[in-house]
Amino acid sequence: MAAPQPGATDPSVIRNFCIIAHIDHGKSTLADRMLQATGVVDERSMRAQYLDRMDIERERGITIKSQAVRLPYRADDGVSYVLNLIDTPGHVDFTYEVSRSLAACEGAVLLVDAAQGIEAQTLANLYLALENDLTIIPVLNKIDLPAAQPEKYAAELAHIIGCSPADILKVSAKTGEGVHALLEEIVHLIPPPVGNADAPARALIFDSVYDTYRGVVTYVRVVDGRIASRERITMMSTGAVHELLEVGVISPEPKPADGLGVGEVGYLITGVKDVRQSRVGDTVTAAQRGATDALGGYQDPKPMVFSGLYPIDGSDYPELRDALDRLKLNDAALVYEPETSLALGFGFRCGFLGLLHMEIVRERLEREHNLDLISTAPNVIYRVMRDDGQELVVTNPSEFPNQKVAKIFEPIVKATIILPSEFVGTVMELCQQRRGTLLGMDYLSEERVELRYTLPLAEIVFDFFDQLKSRTRGYASLDYELTGEQDADLVKVDILLHGDPVDAFSAIVHREKAMAYGTMMTAKLKELIPRQQFEVPIQAAIGSRVITRETIRAMRKDVLAKCYGGDITRKRKLLEKQKEGKKRMKMVGKVEVPQEAFIAALSTTEVKK
Amino acid sequence: MTPLGIYVHVPFCASRCGYCDFNTYTAQELGPGVDRAGFHEHLIAEIDLAAGALGPREVSTVFIGGGTPTLLGADPLVGILDAIRRHFPLAPDAEITTEANPDSVDREMLDTLRAGGVTRISFGMQSAAPHVLAVLERTHTPGMAREVAGWARESGFEHINIDLIYGTPGETDDDLRASLDEVLAADVDHVSAYALIVEDGTALGRRVARGEVPAPDDDVCADRYVIIDDTLPAAGMPWYEISNWARPGAECRHNLGYWRNADWWGIGPGAHSHRSGERWWNVKHPTRYAASVAQGVSPRDDGETLTREQRATEELMLGVRTREGVLLADARHDAEALVRDGLLDPHAFAEGRAVLTRRGRLLTNQVVRALTRD
């Protein structure tokens, strides 16, 4: 029996599934084994983490953009099946993208490291999968590890999803043990897709990727009808019509096909150059006699975290602009607009889905576009009600009104933290400090606890994850989802250098934390700013009220006492170096501040002396 | 023709002081292939080579430094001077200096050096406080400097200098005052005082890096400088360079040559030379140096030709260190701001010169940067 061909595959032999797993729990390795086991990749062309395309993904071991691969599989019952493995992004910032990937599947492999147990992110995605009515196949991975405790974590998993520990598959993606059994389970447990082949075409976009050579490649799951090549299609959220240049499947390299039928997963190429024209969650239909009702669940991506990005070398500004323009083609969630900072010069105010999204964008700008960047402390989006009843949306401390305001609203999240029970006290203390409200606490097993908190997003954005990791020696995992907003007593703290405010250091913080922020920043700057000829006060202020102050004493001596025949060349070079350094100084009023001081002050880690 | 100075570097010490990063070697550090005894022959060989390159030119100053030149012995040092005299006309009032450690000379040696033509001697006393000398790992004992200065006077040296180091970890203001009392009691006519600089790669540098001793504090050094600059002028020795004080007429003419960007020729391992905007320096290790001159090959290691801009920078950087200062050409506007900030002397500024105030001497780097702004 020949393998079913794309566009001519009976839905009854299709199994659409994804793998839900925490970073490092072996998802990519398992995907690699499946590629090999189904024969779509031979030994010779196999490379580790085949499906992770970006360098950053391979290095960090995480998947940022998802992919879908079609695996023909001849099962033990003699039937040739088509398994579509839809890879999901693995981080908290991309919950929406994850939900769309899940919506394209009927089942999910829940993959958990047998030496570590389930993590918060995985749990959150598991709940998301259950909400989407997916069939869950629980699997413990890495059973080959000496530290593996499959019995213990099987009990934990069984407790969470309400099955018997005996139902949990045990595999080693590394050695391949148990992978065949898993493929058989996928075939037998996950239901085939159901759709109306005669209805107008409807396909869900679950990913959209910009390719330099081909333009935007859109990944879809056909729900009803058929998408045929050389048709015209409509994006239902915008009504935009595009020519379909190519339709195909990934197996694991792109293979053009005549079309895609009910339940099939593949890609479309329309020649558009911007992923915004082909948005995740949108419904694709035929331009003529198309569907009238879109598939549900579409949302516009909404940036929640904002930060200023500046080139360290001001002359790199045009390169930064070009790089952002190019990155935007592949990132529908990235927003930015030009911004000028007294301290940092010309840059961009950028909006991100979350912290990881921010980190990834920054890293891609630096790595793929060879830029050196400074970013200002991230802040969230605030809604400010002024006394006169006007409403203001603030994404930058500089927009924060100076006069009295009636109310300020900040975004809040529901956070799930999974941690070893011994750290519960210290993590609760952290959440308390971060203005958290405990929602609930569950023991997943004797040693592992799930904590649920409501927390202001602003508190999570500010080094919460680092704190959590250091307080739990790296054992805690965190997930959060936005749940709304709350009004809070927030103020803007300005940092003044010799009386002049430094815009890059202004922050919106809770009134009770204003002092702590001011003390931290002034102390940091005192260490970082070299002594000047005159005394320099560093102050933190709310409006015109100074709340804390440090002083950089005047410099009294800078000269090398000794200068004779031998060291003239050395001394001149030292002087030339100093002058070079001066050129990199930024003037804040009369005060010379080295660029490095801004960078170090804006990093969340402690100042190292 | 600008005056020519000759510098002779003797790269030997009996032991290495903890703070020193100079090109000098103890017997153990020296290694095989070269010997301290007879090393003056190599220096003389280089003088012969230099004479061929320079031609006859009047030499106004000679400075034998190190290291510890007196470790060579008095007769070899005089032999070096004789070699210089053989090739170059020495000015009738030539200043001929040698450095010495207080514990490396005796009366007989001083008599021999003086008779051999040495006019000026410079003793490395550094401090009168035993605990400071211990941190510096100096081998002499307090009091020695006063004694040897007395011997040198009796031998008939025209000028005697004492070197001081201030700001050493553990030194107090009173320790420094006691050192200055000792200097004044020694009745010398020239004092050089340097703030201790902790150099990477020295024993002291490693101790500071390990946190065993604190690094010298700039504010403390500034205070100590003020003490020195109050004391010495009151005893008749005004400043004539940032780190040098002397009775009028007792200024070191050789060193003034450096600050006035005159020409000098350096003899010996690692010695630097300067002639009309051309700088070069010799190979550092005595073994390589000796091998080179023994074959009649210049021991030059590398060099640089200064651009006009670099020369101007150096002239300012060096000249502004002296009491006479530098002529202000096109930097008047920047200088005015420095006068306002109390770094440059207003009277000298009115006459078109940049001369440092005491505050300016402590912040010379800022002054030089401001005046060489491009």
Q: What Rg of chain B do the Cα atoms give? A: 21 Å
Helix/strand structural class of chain B? alpha/beta
| CATH architecture call of the largest domain in chain B | Alpha-Beta Barrel
Strand order of the largest sheet of chain A: 11-10-16-7-8-15-12-13
Write down the CATH class of the largest domain in chain B.
Answer: Alpha Beta
Chain pair sharing the greatest interface: A-B, 23 and 41 residues
Gross geometry of chain B:
globular
Low-confidence stretches of chain B: none
Measured on Cα atoms, how large is the radius of gyration of chain A?
28 Å
Order of helices and strands of chain B: EHHEHEHEHHEHEHHEEHEEEHEHEHHEHH
The number of helical segments of chain B is 16
**Main beta sheet of chain A:** 8 strands, antiparallel
Question: What's the quaternary structure here?
Answer: heterodimer
Our count of helices of chain A gives 14
Q: Number of DSSP strands of chain B?
A: 14
Mean pLDDT of chain B: 93
Q: How much helicity do the residues of chain B have?
A: 40-55%
Low-confidence sequence ranges of chain A: 60-64, 605-609
User: Count of DSSP E strands of chain A?
Assistant: 34
* Largest β-sheet summary of chain B: 9 strands, mixed
Helical proportion of chain A, percent range: 10-25%
